[in-house]
Fold this sequence. Notes:
The complex is a heterodimer. Helices cover 42% and strands 19% of the residues of chain A. Chain A is α/β, with parallel strands linked by helices. Chain A folds into 2 domains: 6-169, 3-Layer(aba) Sandwich (Rossmann fold); 185-314, Rossmann fold, CATH 3.40.50.920. In chain A, strand 10 (193-197), helix 9 (201-214) and strand 11 form a beta-alpha-beta unit. Chain A is globular and about 65 Å long. By secondary structure, chain B is of the alpha/beta class. In chain B, the strands form 2 sheets. A 5-stranded parallel beta sheet of chain B has the order 1-2-3-7-6, sandwiched between helices. A two-stranded antiparallel ribbon of chain B has the order 4-5. In chain B, strand 6 (209-214), helix 8 (218-228) and strand 7 (236-241) form a beta-alpha-beta unit. In chain B, 50% of the residues are buried.
Amino acid sequence: MPTETLDVPKAFGEALVELGEKNPRVVIVEADLADSCRSDLFRDRFPERTVDVGVAEATAVAVGAGLAFSGKIPYVNTFAVFAAARTFDQVRQIVAYGRANVKICGSAAGLSLGYAGASHHALEDIALMRSQPNMVVVSPADAIETRQMVHAIAEIEGPVYLRLSRAKKPPIYDENYRLEIGKAVILREGSDVALFATGDMVFEALKAADLLSEKGISAEVVNIHTIKPLDAETVTRVAQKTRAVVTIEEHNILGGLGGAIAECLGEHMPTPMRRIGLQDTFCESDSTNVLREAYGMAPHHIVEAAIEAMQMRTSIAGLP
Amino acid sequence: MKQLDQETLTKLEYLSYRIRWHTVDIARDHLKMHFGAVFSIAEMVVSLYFNWMRYDPKNPQWESRDRFVLSKGHAAPALYAALAEAGYYDFEELRTFRSLNSILQGHPCRLHTPGVEVSSGSLGTGIATAVGMAIAGKMDKAPWRVYVILSDAECNEGSTWEAIQVASNHHLSNLVVLLDRNGTSASGPMLNRNDIEPLADKWRAFNWAVTEARGHDFQSIYEGLQWSETITDRPAIIICHTEKGRGMSVVKEHPEHNFMLNTDQYRRALVELENIEKELIIHAN
C-alpha cells in the first residue's frame, strides 16, 4: 500500500478541471460551497462554465437538470447531507424521472464533518438516491478511484450520485488501477468471511482484515464502489464462497450498502450477515475517528461482526 | 406595438376553442380533469404555440427551437392538445391520455411526449429547471428563448422564489414567465388564505421586469410578448389575469379543482362547444 497521503476532495477538484479541459460540455453548479467541495479549482479555471445559485441546493439540482436538457454535463456540488435529502423532490421529479444527465456530487459524506454534528452528517444519502429509478450511485474508496470516477461518470448518459468522503490518507490503489463502473473490486482474497465496504470504510475494512488475519481468519475484502447497479454476480459469488459476510459503510445500516447487499443475497444467496454502520441513530459531534469508535464502526468492531457472522453460519447452517 | 390582424385573431380563437374541445373529448364523461386550470391557460398556450415561439414539430430536438415549460403540470391537456394541433403527433393520441402505453402521461413527461421539454407536476420545480435551460442558452449565446407558464399558486412554493432569484442574478433576459393569475388554487380562492399579493411588487423586488396582461385576450398577450423582447438585462414576467374554467359554463358548475363531467354535463358541454364553433365560423365569415 502506498504511504503518500492523498486528499479525496483535492483529487475530485483536479479531476473536474481535467475533465473540463477535455470536454467543453462539462459545467458545474454550486450552492455556495465550492471552496469546501474543491470544485473551486474548476470555478477558477472555467468561470464562464460555473453557475453559483447561492444557498439553494434544491434549485442547484433543478438548474443542473435544465443545463443537462440543453446539452451540458453539469456536476452539481454541495455537501452530501444536502445533496440528497435537501434536494430530493427535484432529484425525483426532474432528474430521475426526466433522466437528466446530471452528476450530483455529495461532498463530505458520512461522518466526514464529524465535529459539525448530526445536521451535517450524511447518513441517508445512499438510501435516498438508490431508491430512484435511472439513478447510478457510486462511492469511491480513495483519491485515485475518485479521480477516475469523475471521468467515468461523464460517460454515463443519465443521472449519477457521486458520494465523496473527505479522507486524506494513503490511497488503496496505485496509478495502474483501472476503475470499471458496476464492477466490484476484490482487494484481498479470503475464504472465511467477506467484508463488503464502500467509500472511506474500504480502508477500515482492510485494517480489519489485517486484525482478522492475526486471529487466523481469512477475510475477503471487496470494494463496492458502485452501489447501484450493484455487482450482484460478484457479491453472490463471494458470499457463496465465504458463507459469512459483513457490510461496512458510513451510513445508516438501513437502505445503504448493507441494505443493497442484504436485498441481493436474500434473493440469490441467503447468507449470515452483519451490517456495520450507524444503527439507525443520529450521531453526536466529534472527530470522525472518535465517532466511528463510539458508534461501533472501528476496525475492531468489524472484526467482532465478522466473528459473529461466522458463528451465525455455524449455528444456522451447521457449517464449520 | 404590433396589432394582430383579423385573420390571425380568428385562427387563434379557433385554436383556443380546439384546446377546450380536445380537453372535453379526452375526458368525456369518465376521466377526471383539471378543466379549470386547462381553460385558464388556453389562450396563453395558443399564443405561444401559434403566434410566437419558433419550433419544428417534425424535429422536436431542433437546436434553435424556443423552449416551453409548463410548470403547472396539472394543466397538461392544454399542452397536449396544442402539441397535437401543432403537428407533433396525431390527434388519435389524445384519447389515450393517462392510459397504459400512452405517450401522454397524467402530468408532462419529457421521455414520453415529443415536444415536452421538462417533466413537471411537482409545483415549483418546472420554473427552476427552466432557469437552468436559460442559463445554458446564455452560456452558448443561443438565439432561442425559454417560456414558462407558471400558476399563481406555485408562488406559494419556496422553490419558485429560489429559482426566480437565481434568474435575475444571472440576468436571464432570455427567460419569460407567463403567470396564470386566476386567483384560485386547489382548495378555492387564494384571497385571505394562501394569498400572494402584492404579486407584481414581489417579482419587481426580485429584479424581474414585470408587466400585466388580460390572459384571455390574444392582443394583450401579444403585446406582453412583444414587450418581453425589449427587456435585455433581466428576466421578464407577464402576469396574465385569467379566469379559472374560462369559456365553458358547464365546467364552472364544479367548484372542485379536479373533477369529472357527468353524462348530462358532458352532453351539454358538447352542445356548448358546438355553439362556440358555429359562432366562430359565422365570425370568421
